[in-house]
Amino acid sequence: MSDPADDGVFFVGNATTLIRYGGFTLLTDPNFLHRGQRAYLGYGLTSRRRTDPAIGVGELPALDAVVLSHLHGDHWDRVARRGLDRDVPVVTTPQAARRLRPQGFHGAVGLDTWSGHELRRGGRTLRITALPGRHAPGPAQALLPPVMGSMLEFGTDGRVDLRVHISGDTLLVPELAEIPRRYPDIDLAIVHLGGTKILGMLMVTMDGGQGADWLGLIDPDAVMPVHYDDYEAFTSPLDDFRRHVEQAGLADRVRYVARGETLRLPVRPESGGAPGVPDAREAQSAPGPGGASGVPEPARDAAGTRERGRQP
């Protein structure tokens, strides 16, 4: 297992990642239930977890913020609620922030779509912007909690050094087309997959086919899939996504990261580097069809082979 203190994206499990870059440490969608425990999905519905998280909530480093896409039990569970430092800001939807504050998370920040929250550390900044998402089709959306995607922009002295986009639990909906128009240069996207179905019928997260189409739409330099096999409600395994991205000619964009391993993040040449931040990325390969080698992929430039301008 990688050291969670390393810079990069450490994959805890489900949609939970630990992102460390430029002196900032973020936790996304904290889910620390163990195998066999049930996550509450609302309206009396639950789903049993199939996997264990790579680390427990007590093993987390000090956090600058938590980024929470929405309030569902597989993204914010009772273990996280009891174990997280209540002084750490939780950046989330307005609806989730209103529910978290009475639980003691008084610094919860509710963001409307396209609004942002900025953290500062000396000359370094991290801007978290809420992006559109829709958790269910049509009128069924009213039955589920509001969801947001997010854009993380790590900067130095007014310059953007790295952009990381997190999809959140969204379906592929027309509103998402505005994201690449506003952010044409995305270094890494973290996509929530799984083809989650409520009552075995209503799909509320992207399956492998939608995920591949989403990748073509958002057009990041690289993508890391998460949220694909941790719960019984997930119906679209990682191999579905793998097959569709191969058919679409996008397989070279995908970085498969096993639980407990770290995807290293880039330092752009123009940023001049930063102490403790690597200048290439490495990923541990997740199991593919027929088994897993457990051998790391070679270090690769995070931006792939494309050269694109960086806009603040």
Automatic annotation (TrEMBL):
InterPro entries: Metallo-B-lactamas, RibonucZ/Hydroxyglut_hydro, UPF0173_UPF0282_UlaG_hydrolase. Signal peptide: none annotated. SMART domains: Lactamase_B (SM00849). Residues 298-312 have a biased composition (Basic and acidic residues). Residues 13-192 form the Metallo-beta-lactamase domain. Residues 266-312 are annotated as: Disordered. Gene3D superfamilies: Ribonuclease Z/Hydroxyacylglutathione hydrolase-like. PANTHER family: METALLO-BETA-LACTAMASE DOMAIN-CONTAINING PROTEIN, UPF0173 METAL-DEPENDENT HYDROLASE MJ1163-RELATED. This is Lactamase B. It comes from Planomonospora sphaerica. The lineage of its organism: Bacteria, Bacillati, Actinomycetota, Actinomycetes, Streptosporangiales.
